[in-house]
Amino acid sequence: MIKNKGYRVTEEVKKKISLALKGKIPKNIKMIAGWNKGLKVSEKMKQRISNTLKKKGIKPILPFVSYGKDNPNWKGNNVSYSGLHYWLRRKLGEPKVCEHCKSSKRRLTWANKSWKYKRDIKDWISLCYSCHKYYDLKRL
User: Fold this and answer.
1) Could you count the other beta carbons within 10 Å of the beta carbon of residue 13?
2) Which of 36, 56, 97, 128 is most buried by a 10 A CB count?
3) What is the sign of the dihedral through the CA atoms of 3, 8, 10 and 13?
4) Tens-of-pLDDT digits for all 140 residues of the chain?
5) Is residue 2 part of a domain?
6) What are phi and psi of 110, to 5 degrees?
């Protein structure tokens, strides 16, 4: 449907516009393709979507995202500070209780046991801010 506020478009003009736009990707395709970001899709469904897009001659704009070591942007242990904390929250979730003072009402964070930033889930403990500060001061 063509929306032109205040203008009337004849059927002939609508047909001309339709023919001119045939086979072209709309400008707002990114908005259309973004709704399914992060959605889990089976391999069979991925194949069906891929075949449909090939028939229409459209290249997929957002490829199906692979996580972890399969992702081409995977950095392993060379990950940034924020990237490691994002990975940690995805794997362990938000901390619930401080492992030192057993408080659950304070603001909690993840802290390293070894003081080395590595992707080892066993190397992290849940601490409140005050316990985290004292824990880090022990290292110095």
Assistant:
1) 13
2) 128
3) negative
4) 555 566 677 888 888 877 777 766 555 554 455 556 666 778 888 788 778 777 777 665 555 566 677 777 778 778 888 888 888 888 888 889 999 898 888 889 888 888 887 888 898 999 999 898 888 888 76
5) no
6) -95, 140
Q: Which domain holds residue 111?
A: 75-139
Match 């399914």 to its residue by tokens. Answer: 36
Quick one: which H or E segment has residue 109? strand 108-112
Question: How far apart are the C-alpha atoms of 87 and 93, rounded to whole Å?
Answer: 9
Residue 65 within a domain: no
Contacts of 131 (CB under 8 A, 6+ apart): 98, 100, 101
- Location of structure tokens 């802290």: 111
Tell me: do 134 and 90 sit in the same domain: yes
Decide: 95 and 109 in contact? Cβ < 8 Å: yes
pTM of the model: 0.48
Q: Which two tokens stand for residue 118?
A: 């590595």
**Does one domain contain both 50 and 95?**
no
- DSSP one-letter code for 110: E
Residue 118 lies in a domain: yes
The verdict on residue 49 lying in a domain is yes
Q: Which residue has the tokens 């942007």?
A: 73
